[in-house]
């Protein structure tokens, strides 16, 4: 598994993988966590695409006919939060980092990874 690279990531997941592995020397354990983060990013993309199919509305009719938030929206937010937490756990980003703020360099490997929707 010395040069392991997942071959079935989506566009966003592959971009994150490529950036991280090109920029940093990661252990095999870190690569396993990175792969999970990449898959979460791809999952968020899929969920946002489903939301886009709603015609730009984040609301759908609930079981009683009331308007509620589309369940895909909460799932997409959760996938993004899990992705950020996984990246933070291997030192690639901070979970609540604002993109406009500089990232403090504690270990020499911290870098903000940009993905769509965060």
How would you sum up this structure in a few lines?
This protein has 118 residues and is mainly alpha-helical. The protein has 3 helices and 2 strands; from the N terminus they run ααββα.
Write structural notes for this entry.
It is a single chain. This protein has helices at about 10-25, 30-50, 70-90, and strands spanning about 60, 65-70. Strand 1 and strand 2 (about 65-70) form a beta hairpin. It has a two-stranded antiparallel ribbon. It has three helices and two strands, in the order ααββα. Helix 1 runs antiparallel to helix 2 (about 30-50). About 50% of the residues lie in helices and about 5% in strands. The radius of gyration is 16 Å and the shape is elongated. The chain is mainly α. Mean pLDDT is about 80; it is low at about 100-118.
Sketch the topology as an H/E string, one letter per element: HHEEH
What are the low-pLDDT stretches, counting only 5+ consecutive residues below 50?
101-118
Distance between the termini: 31 Å
| Residue-averaged pLDDT | 80
Taking all Cα atoms into account, the compactness measure Rg is 16 Å
Features:
single chain, 118 residues, mainly alpha, 2 strands, elongated, two-stranded antiparallel sheet
Question: Topology, please?
Answer:
Blueprint: H1 11-23, H2 28-52, E1 59-61, E2 67-69, H3 71-89
Antiparallel strand pairs: 1-2
């Amino acid at each position: 598994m010395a040069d392991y690279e997942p071959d079935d990531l989506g566009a966003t997941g592959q971009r994150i993988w490529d950036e991280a592995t090109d920029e940093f020397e990661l252990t095999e354990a870190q690569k396993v966590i990175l792969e999970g983060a990449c898959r979460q990013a791809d999952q968020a993309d899929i969920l946002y695409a489903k939301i886009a199919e709603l015609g730009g509305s984040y609301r759908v009719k609930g079981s009683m006919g009331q308007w509620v938030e589309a369940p895909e929206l909460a799932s997409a937010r959760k996938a993004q939060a899990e992705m950020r937490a996984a990246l933070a756990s291997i030192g690639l980003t901070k979970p609540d980092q604002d993109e406009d703020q500089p990232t403090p360099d504690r270990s020499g490997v911290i870098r903000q990874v940009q993905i769509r929707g965060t």
